[in-house]
Amino acid sequence: MTRRALPMLGATGPATEADPEDPLELVGVPVPVDEATFDAMAGTFVEEFVRDGWTDRQLLAHFRSPYYAGLHIIWRRRGEPWVQALIAETRVRWRRSDPAVPEGPAVTEGRD
């Protein structure tokens, strides 16, 4: 745990020392990843966003953005065609079409 002072939000007074026993303190930890784990991580990211209803355009924009480090490193290491294929495979697996793509013409058979 860190021993740095954390600023308090709002008008609560001066900064206080972080409590090392606080289970809610945000701590980042680097984790070594092999290629298989890297691909599984990518699949998990895409699955979550596809199931939440994101469009392919939204997903690719986040992969391209360096502000989304986890997604961006996947895009840089694997390339956009790989990411697009992963999105397509995930959509098939979860039977979730891209919400931005219209379904197709309505069937009007039998109407005169």
Quickly count the helices: 4
How far is it from the N-terminal to the C-terminal residue, by CA? Answer: 73 Å
Strand content: under 5%
> Count of DSSP E strands?
2
The low-confidence parts are 6-11, 105-112
- What is the 3D form? elongated
Q: Spatial order of the strands in the main sheet?
A: 1-2
Helix share bin: 40-55%
Structural notes for this entry:
With 112 residues, the chain is mostly helical. It has a domain of 43 residues. It has a two-stranded antiparallel sheet with strand order 1-2. α1 packs across α4, α2 packs antiparallel against α4 and α3 crosses α4. The radius of gyration is 21 Å and the shape is elongated. The C terminus is likely disordered.
Briefly, what is this?
This protein has 112 residues and is mainly α.
Keywords:
two-stranded antiparallel sheet, disordered C terminus, 2 strands, 4% strand, mainly alpha, 112 residues
List the topology elements.
Elements: E1 5-6, E2 16-17, H1 35-51, H2 56-64, H3 69-78, H4 80-94
Antiparallel strand pairs: 1-2
Helix pairs in contact: 1-4, 2-4, 3-4
